[in-house]
Amino acid sequence: MSRFKSSTMDVDLQKVFGNRVPELYQAAVGRDASPALVRALELRSFLALTEEQVADVRDRVHADMDPDRDMGELSADKLRFDAQWLKAALDARDGYRSALGQLLRTMPPPDQRGACPVREGQLRVTAALPSSPAPVPQRAGAAPARRP
Question: Shortest CA distance to 93 belongs to which of 51, 130, 144?
Fold first, then answer.
């Protein structure tokens, strides 16, 4: 599972949230888990899985191109398919890295988290609504009377 695989953003997660990735996953299942932490770990899991896919395709292409391998086993179609697969995996990886990086950049510094009080209670409207410009007729919206 991707939560046990490392990702290229693990160090950034540790810097922002202050714990190692396994501890962050444990904290994310708690009732008071930060929504930002849950989202960050979700993106991190997707990233780790995608990076694993990139590595699998890379390793497969390297094995296919091994100098000791029989040249008769090379397949342009197979390499073309692997190139398409690799491009898709790299695009996904870049998207996840970008999304996770943006989330981490928008997080307040660890020492400032919780400094803003959480407002509990209902918001109140303090502005008065303008009065109606014209009186509403008494029969407004009533269906016209039937004619015999």
Answer: 51
Q: pLDDT tens digits for 41-99?
A: 999 999 999 999 999 999 999 999 999 999 898 899 999 999 999 999 999 999 999 99
Would you call 89 exposed, middle or buried from its count of C-beta atoms within 10 A (0-12, 13-18, 19+)?
buried
Residue 6 corresponds to which tokens in the numbers above?
């490392």
Q: Average the pLDDT over each of 12-16, 74-78, 105-109 and give the range with the smallest value.
A: 105-109
Angle, CA of 31, 34 and 39, to the nearest 5°: 115
Residue with tokens 């708690």: 30
SS (H, E, C) the chain: CCCCCCCCCHHHHHHHHCCCHHHHHHHHCCCCCCHHHHHHHHHHHHHHHHHHHHHHHHHHHHHHCCCCCCHHHCCHHHHHHHHHHHHHHHHHHHHHHHHHHHHHHHCCCHHHCCCCCCCCCCCCCCCCCCCCCCCCCCCCCCCCCCCC
pTM of the predicted model, to two decimals? 0.69
Q: Which two tokens stand for residue 144?
A: 């016209």
Contact 93, 40 (CB under 8 A): no
